[in-house]
Amino acid sequence: MxxxxxLCLWYNGTALEAATFYxxxxxxxxxxxxxxxxxxxxxxxQGDVLTxxxxxxxxxxxxxxxxxxxxxxxxxxxxxxxDDQAETDRYWNAIIDNGGQPSACGWCKDKWGLSWxxxxxxxxxxxxxPNPAVAKRAFDAMMTMTKIxxxxxxxxxxxx
Length: 160
Known about the structure:
Layout: E1 7-11, H1 15-25, E2 30-36, E3 49-56, E4 59-65, E5 77-82, H2 85-97, E6 101-102, E7 107-109, E8 115-120, H3 121-127, H4 132-142, H5 150-158
Parallel strand pairs: 1-4, 5-8
Antiparallel strand pairs: 2-3, 3-4, 6-7, 7-8
Helix pairs in contact: 4-5
């Protein structure tokens, strides 16, 4: 049965490559189905991969190979909550080492242009801390980072 709501992500002919990478990188992720175009379309020919059904950490997605007209922007991102530095490093490095680009404050972009936030739970808890001084210290520390350093966030929370 198809889910009621699915994220449709626009790709320039690389939906299967992206979906396969996500399935190999993140838990609870898989390529579910590949559908070929029944006829020619503006971005391809009959028989080309038109759509790919996949999940990313349990979120149902549809990759649409619709050409270069609408590249992804930072207005959309996947936010992946991590439990420790090893998990943070693993996901961050997988994206960066596979042709991605680092950004600021735990954000990075994969080789297909999709944005990701690799966000340790420690960071999320710290910047939403009920004590405004603690939240500000954690926030200020985060603002200096590219990939999130959990030890530095914990030090900021502790006031060190």
